[in-house]
């Protein structure tokens, strides 16, 4: 089996967004709420029978 490690480039915009989320969750933990069971049921309905490959490349990714 041949495998290679792909070095991912850091996205500065994504990093800033994740920093913002981290700070907001730390400063306002009372805003964090679990998903309602009704929403989880709806997600299950909409995705039943759909197979996904978590190892497949995302659409638009280059195969360098």
Could you name the ranges where pLDDT drops below 50 across 5 or more consecutive residues? none
Proportion of residues in extended strands: under 5%
**What share of the residues lie within helices?**
40-55%
DSSP strand tally: 0
- How many distinct helices? 2
Biggest sheet details? none
> How far do the termini sit from each other?
18 Å
Q: What structural category characterises the helix and strand content?
A: mainly alpha
Q: Quote the average pLDDT.
A: 87
Outline type:
flat
Q: Radius of gyration from the CA trace?
A: 18 Å
Which sequence of SSEs, written as H and E, runs from N to C?
HH
What does the model show?
By secondary structure, this protein is mostly helical. The chain has two helices and no strands. The protein has helices spanning 12-27, 37-47. The mean pLDDT is 87.
List the helices and strands and how they pair.
Elements: H1 12-27, H2 37-47
Task: Please name the defining characteristics of this protein.
2 helices; about 40% helix; about 0% strand; about 60 residues
Summarize the structure.
The chain is mostly helical. It has helices spanning about 10-25, 35-45.
